[in-house]
Amino acid sequence: MAVEQTDIETGEQPTIDSLDIEPFISLMGSLLDLDRLRIASALVDGPADRMQLYEATGIGHRDLLRHIDNMQQACVIKLAEPAPHTPDQYSPYALNQPAFSAARRALGKHRGVRPRPTDARELTLESFMPGGKLTAFPQKQTQIVVILDELARRFEPERQYTEPEVNVILEEVNEDYCTLRRSLVDYGYMRRDKGVYVKNGA
Hints:
Largest sheet: 3 strands, antiparallel
Helix content: 40-55%
Distance between the termini: 31 Å
Low-confidence stretches: 10-19
């Protein structure tokens, strides 16, 4: 694909603050207790009532009630369907699977966030040369200079390159190596003499 000029701005990338990670925080906050982890573990194989949870976890009845209430408020567990109007010690509880699914999705978004570039050069390269491949050629002079400076780093100073050698190096960035080669010369990053190209400066 040929290099196309574009006036794409270097837009902001998503940040952790802009993502909805509340489901993950809520779930983890509720499970940051060994007794609550024991309760959740006891419910992995299926619903269980308070008497069964007491036998499985060894947690005292008063503490068990407190933990169950906390985990219900955090939507980690719920009364198994059909939920009774007046739950008692024989009313079964179950893990709230949608809460775990929402937490996994939130964590996936969190892991997908990359640190936002901190200066204009990094922003330009991230926008126009992600992964070292030129996807669009900027129109702003400041951004063009950044791209060409990055391309020039692929050449050794004062070494003589034939035109085919230059083409091979630039084609790794974008198939429109003619435009890139010409721009490097026009902007003074390289000089050309009788088909031989030399990088200027250090």
